[in-house]
């Protein structure tokens, strides 16, 4: 269990002159769920986006430090971000199935564009991933319908299935339930616990109860700094830092 | 008393708005009515299937002009649809640098260039070196006219695609060009088609740039380096002729042209309601 | 670099029991993804540059072909009022005059109507009816100008000659603009057609401008007890003034370049006259009429010179319009 899959060392991120993430170092063990909590604007999303280099999409963003995936620095200048993202998938805050694509196309797009053309194989991938995302039973009869025709919670699980299709060992989730109602959120949470068997999940959430429910490890960020990182049971019951305790008990944030 | 006066003013104002609408819609109805009335009495199957006959002889049609218009619009489409789409993609996906600013300015200017001036350009660059009016020159002139329309509509449509869709594609480990073409462009193919169809309908109705590029003729031609008739130019030539027969043919041609152009237009617009797209500069 | 990426592929795919690494490696191109993206980027960029070069080429060719006439007549070309192809004597003033007067008249006629229609669609009609009416207005823009011309020659011109002219003569005949004989075709008819053709342009931009005014301001005006007319005057027209100006100038840009409809109803005589009933010619119409028939090189070049002038005029007007609209959107957008 203590096999470290992703290790962040002294990560600093700037948007032009503004430093959003300040010297953060965290290790993520394999097949675990780690949550990142903190008040709005504390750099938690920025941090997460660095982990698969999608932060490069924001003009002026620049990351320094090391992020080691199985010992290899993915921030290295010679590393192709496209390859990084193939190993580190991501689910976004808003459910975002691709427009004008059926459920099936949505799930299989990644594999299809990697060169898999065989229909039965694609179907196999789709079924496996939709099952993993706990969506198969709901959509198996309407795979050719538009992805956007599903409900919000289903769309989000479709996005998870889509990310699983290329089978990344690490899955990042950026507030995956903040746009969903409580019941849909619960389903996603249960799904996350299932995913832990095969994947390393890192989730940003603004919902502390959620972090306490699903995560094994939790980090607490304030203003771009890591205040505390540790096992969930410690952070929520016995925080070492005063700030963490204040935040968890609702005195601040 | 004062309130009454204000209410009266309000009433007059409302009345004048209705009047404005009437002033616009009545001519539209009149134009369409007359085109249909005059065209319907002159049009028949012959019009579509036969070539013009000399003055005085009955019958004859505009088969050559209808085919010529289709031919040259196809040339224009082949040139400017890919080019316009790519430029639109460039503006929406990489639209920040110097080249993009310059391209945006260029597209703005091209939209504003009068079509007759574009005709002159095609004449100088194609007709003069080839020493002959040609379908090629006509097609090129039309393509320059629709290029900015395709480019602008593409840019505006693709800009509506939210950034997180692109990020989702990138997060799947797809290279950017895959994300752009397989997700962003392909996902909006139907709206893009609408923009392209509107551009084509415009090209089909253009007369001025064809006058001295494709020039027109009275026989059927499929040669790209020879003069070619087109519906609008044929209508023009017949309309300014003194012969009743020919003027009737002009009306019939107008009917075909207006049905073609408005047909494509309405079809494209109702197919997908393009609420957000502003085709403001060239109709 | 390639090696390092390859190892990444293996690492990511060894987790996957379905997508075996052989499949993943059978890429479309044998380039790294960064290289693919770079090639794609520069490919698209080169097309963009091609279009920019096209415009430069267009302007350059126009100047090149107008060069003989420029050398012969210089800048005075724009102010010479004699256009005589037989004696190779060319001056563009009649066409400048014709273009400006028809466009100006068209604007005078089209502006109030367009603003009215825009208000009518946005403020009076229900959403469904508004969609229908605006579709109709946009259909006007879609009608080919040759059809406008045909209709103008056979219906509008007789109407102007037999109905409009007597009315104008009896009511405003003391003005020099409304004197002289009317043949139906002439400045007035051309202006009427042009007005109709630019109404959709001005209307649609006015509608966009009106939509940028926050509903809150309109409701505030209504809440103060103003009538709808007063609300529109205070909360809608006043803040959109510069936007409307931009719309008008853009409409002007369109009117200046319109060719066929005008060429068919203006009469094509290179003369300057105060009477709106008299025939004239515009820059665009003279090119359309004489270009294929020009037999001397100087004539052709003079026509290109006219085209160049037309280009300059429309370019300036469109630039002005864009500047105004851009200023407005900056103000509203904050």
From TrEMBL, chain A:
InterPro entries named among the record's database cross-references: AAA+_ATPase, ABC_transporter-like_ATP-bd, ABC_transporter-like_CS, P-loop_NTPase, PstB-like
All copies of domain ABC transporter, residue ranges: 6-248
Pfam families: ABC_tran (PF00005)
GO biological process, one term: phosphate ion transmembrane transport
Keyword Cell division appears in the UniProt entry: no
GO MF, any single term: phosphate transmembrane transporter activity
One GO cellular component, as annotated: membrane
Protein origin, superkingdom: Bacteria
Keywords on record: ATP-binding, Nucleotide-binding, Phosphate transport, Transport
NCBIfam families, per the entry: 3a0107s01c2 (TIGR00972)
Record-given protein name: Phosphate ABC transporter ATP-binding protein
UniProtKB/TrEMBL annotation, chain B:
Keywords in alphabetical order: Cell membrane, Membrane, Phosphate transport, Transmembrane, Transmembrane helix, Transport
CC per GO annotation: plasma membrane
Transmembrane parts of this sequence: 12-36, 70-91, 103-126, 132-151, 179-200, 251-272
GO biological process: phosphate ion transmembrane transport
A UniProt-annotated Pfam family: BPD_transp_1
Annotated ABC transmembrane type-1 domain residues: 66-268
GO terms, molecular function: phosphate transmembrane transporter activity
Gene3D superfamilies: MetI-like
Localisation: Cell membrane
Database matches in InterPro entries: MetI-like, MetI-like_sf, Phosphate_PstA, Phosphate_transprt_permease
Topology class, membrane: Multi-pass membrane protein
PANTHER family: PHOSPHATE TRANSPORT SYSTEM PERMEASE PROTEIN PSTA (PTHR42922)
Family in the record: Belongs to the binding-protein-dependent transport system permease family. CysTW subfamily.
Name of this chain's protein: Phosphate transport system permease protein PstA
Native organism: Halobacteriovorax marinus
Species classification: Bacteria, Pseudomonadati, Bdellovibrionota, Bacteriovoracia, Bacteriovoracales
TrEMBL record, chain C:
Transmembrane residue ranges: 42-67, 95-121, 133-157, 177-199, 236-256, 300-321
Biological process, per Gene Ontology: phosphate ion transport
GO cellular component: plasma membrane
Domain of life: Bacteria
An MF annotation (GO) of this entry: phosphate transmembrane transporter activity
Pfam families xref list: BPD_transp_1
InterPro entries, sorted: MetI-like (IPR000515), MetI-like_sf (IPR035906), Phosphate_PstC (IPR011864), Phosphate_Transport_Permease (IPR051124)
Function: Part of the binding-protein-dependent transport system for phosphate; probably responsible for the translocation of the substrate across the membrane.
Homology family: Belongs to the binding-protein-dependent transport system permease family. CysTW subfamily.
Name recorded for this polypeptide: Phosphate transport system permease protein
Organism expressing this protein natively: Halobacteriovorax marinus
């Amino acid at each position: 269990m203590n096999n470290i899959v992703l290790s962040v060392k002294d990560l600093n991120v700037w948007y032009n002159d503004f430093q959003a993430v300040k010297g953060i170092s965290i290790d993520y063990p394999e097949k675990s769920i780690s949550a990142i909590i903190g008040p709005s604007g504390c750099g938690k999303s920025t941090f997460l986006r660095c982990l698969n280099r999608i932060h490069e999409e924001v003009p002026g963003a620049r990351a320094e430090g090391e992020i080691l995936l199985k010992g290899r620095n993915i921030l290295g200048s010679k590393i192709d971000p496209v390859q990084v993202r193939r190993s580190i998938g991501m689910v976004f805050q808003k459910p975002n199935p691709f427009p004008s694509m059926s459920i099936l196309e949505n799930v299989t797009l990644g594999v299809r564009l990697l060169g898999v053309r065989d229909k039965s194989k694609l179907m196999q991938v789709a079924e496996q991933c939709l099952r993993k995302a706990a969506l198969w039973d709901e959509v198996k009869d309407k795979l050719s319908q538009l992805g956007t025709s599903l409900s919000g919670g289903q769309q989000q699980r479709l996005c998870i299935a889509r990310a699983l299709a290329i089978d990344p060992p690490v899955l990042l989730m950026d507030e995956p339930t903040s746009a969903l109602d409580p019941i849909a959120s619960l389903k996603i949470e249960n799904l996350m616990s299932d995913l832990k068997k095969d994947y390393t999940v890192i989730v940003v959430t603004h919902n502390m109860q959620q972090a306490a429910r699903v995560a094994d490890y939790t980090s607490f960020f304030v203003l771009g700094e890591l205040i505390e990182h540790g096992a969930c049971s410690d952070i929520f019951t016995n925080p070492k830092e005063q700030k963490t305790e204040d935040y968890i008990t609702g005195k601040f944030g | 008393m004062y309130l009454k006066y204000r209410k009266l003013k309000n009433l007059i104002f409302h009345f004048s708005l209705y009047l404005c609408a009437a002033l616009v819609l009545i001519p539209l109805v009149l134009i369409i009515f007359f085109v249909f009335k005059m065209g319907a009495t002159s049009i028949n199957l012959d019009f579509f299937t036969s070539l013009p006959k000399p003055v005085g002889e009955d019958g004859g049609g505009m088969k050559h002009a209808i085919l010529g218009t289709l031919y040259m619009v196809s040339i224009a489409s082949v040139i400017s649809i890919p080019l316009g789409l790519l430029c639109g993609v460039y503006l929406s996906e990489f639209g920040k640098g110097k080249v993009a600013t310059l391209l945006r300015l260029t597209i703005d200017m091209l939209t504003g260039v009068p079509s007759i001036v574009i005709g002159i350009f095609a004449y100088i660059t194609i007709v003069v070196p080839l020493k002959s009016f040609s379908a090629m020159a006509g097609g090129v002139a039309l393509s320059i006219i629709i290029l900015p329309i395709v480019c602008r509509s593409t840019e505006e449509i693709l800009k509506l695609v939210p950034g997180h869709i692109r990020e989702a594609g990138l997060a799947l480990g797809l290279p950017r060009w895959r994300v752009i073409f397989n997700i962003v462009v392909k996902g909006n193919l139907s709206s893009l088609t609408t923009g392209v169809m509107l551009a084509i309908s415009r090209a089909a109705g253009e007369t001025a740039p064809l006058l001295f590029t494709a020039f027109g003729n009275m026989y059927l031609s499929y040669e790209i380096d020879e003069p070619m008739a087109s519906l609008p130019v044929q209508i023009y030539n017949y309309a300014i002729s003194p012969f009743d027969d020919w003027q009737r043919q002009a009306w019939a041609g107008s009917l075909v042209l207006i049905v073609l152009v408005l047909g494509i237009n309405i079809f494209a617009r109702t197919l997908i309601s393009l609420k957000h797209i502003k085709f403001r500069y060239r109709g | 670099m390639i090696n390092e990426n390859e190892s990444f592929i293996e690492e990511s795919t060894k987790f996957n029991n379905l997508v075996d690494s052989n499949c993943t490696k059978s890429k479309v191109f044998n380039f790294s993804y960064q290289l693919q993206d770079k090639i794609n980027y520069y490919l698209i960029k080169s097309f963009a540059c091609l279009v920019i070069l096209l415009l430069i080429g267009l302007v350059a060719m126009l100047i090149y072909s107008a060069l003989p006439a420029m050398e012969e007549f210089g800048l005075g070309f724009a102010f010479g009022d004699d256009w005589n192809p037989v004696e190779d004597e060319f001056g563009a003033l009649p066409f400048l005059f014709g273009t400006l007067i028809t466009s100006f008249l068209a604007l005078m006629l089209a502006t109030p109507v367009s603003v009215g229609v825009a208000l009518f669609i946005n403020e009076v009609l229900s959403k469904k009816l508004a969609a229908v009416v605006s579709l109709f207005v946009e259909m006007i823009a879609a009608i080919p100008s040759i059809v406008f011309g045909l209709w103008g020659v056979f219906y509008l011109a007789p109407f102007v000659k037999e109905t409009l002219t007597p009315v104008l003569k009896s009511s405003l005949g003391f003005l020099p603009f409304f004197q002289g004989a009317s043949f139906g075709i002439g400045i007035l008819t051309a202006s009427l057609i042009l007005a109709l053709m630019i109404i959709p342009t001005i209307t649609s931009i006015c509608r966009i401008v009106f939509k940028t005014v926050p509903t809150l301001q309109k409701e505030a005006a209504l809440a103060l007890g103003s009538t709808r007319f007063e609300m529109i005057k205070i909360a809608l027209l006043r803040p959109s003034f510069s936007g409307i100006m931009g719309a008008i100038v853009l409409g002007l840009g369109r009117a200046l370049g319109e060719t066929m409809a005008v060429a068919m109803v203006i009469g094509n005589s290179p003369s300057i006259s105060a009477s709106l009933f008299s025939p004239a010619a515009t820059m665009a119409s003279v090119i359309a009429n004489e270009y294929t028939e020009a037999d001397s090189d100087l004539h052709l070049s003079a026509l290109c010179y006219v085209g160049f002038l037309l280009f300059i005029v429309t370019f300036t007007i469109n630039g002005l319009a864009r500047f105004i609209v851009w200023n407005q959107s900056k103000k509203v957008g904050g």
